[in-house]
Design brief:
Length: about 160
């Protein structure tokens, strides 16, 4: 993803996640903080989807929250947002994305991927190897509620990087 992709990414976000609005600044900040975790799925006609992800530590950031900085000692690679237009479905993009993010997490020395499942998507993520993690205290429960009543924090192990 590049800054020039942000208008298309914002259009996709509005279409795919209308119940989870975030300011343009949130997308721009994630891209500035960790461009290696911000990806766009494209075909010849333009973007079909995107992923916003970054190293993280602790409870998930609340929806529509600026981070300020990434943690100096992250524990997981956090998938903040994945959105695919209907035209992208059935192309194998989620499997390819997860393989890519697992590789990047392993290269960064991280042992887990994490995400907040919304809209009843927890069963989908379970099929991808993620497990629900109980909310750890009132602060984490409050942040999860910003994503809706069914939001679930989930994690998946990342295989260790193999030395070259």
């Amino acid at each position: 993803m590049a800054p020039a992709d942000l208008p298309a990414v914002l259009r996709i976000a509005a279409e795919v996640h209308p119940g989870y609005p975030e300011r343009d600044e949130v997308f721009a900040e994630r891209l500035a903080l960790h461009p290696g975790g911000c990806l766009v799925l494209e075909d010849g006609g333009g973007p079909l989807g995107y992923c916003i992800s970054h190293p993280w530590r602790g409870e998930p950031p609340a929806l529509d929250t600026l981070l300020g900085a990434l943690p100096p000692q992250p524990l997981s690679w956090y998938l903040h947002d994945v959105a695919l237009l209907p035209a992208a479905r059935g192309l194998g993009a989620p499997a390819a994305l997860l393989a890519c993010l697992r590789e990047r997490a392993a290269a960064a020395g991280l042992q887990a991927l994490s995400l907040t499942a919304v809209n009843g998507s927890a069963p989908y993520w379970q099929r991808q190897g993620f497990e629900a993690v109980p909310a750890d205290g009132p602060k984490q429960r409050e942040k999860l509620r910003s994503y809706g009543p069914d939001a679930r924090l989930m994690t998946a192990a990342v295989p260790s990087a193999v030395p070259a």
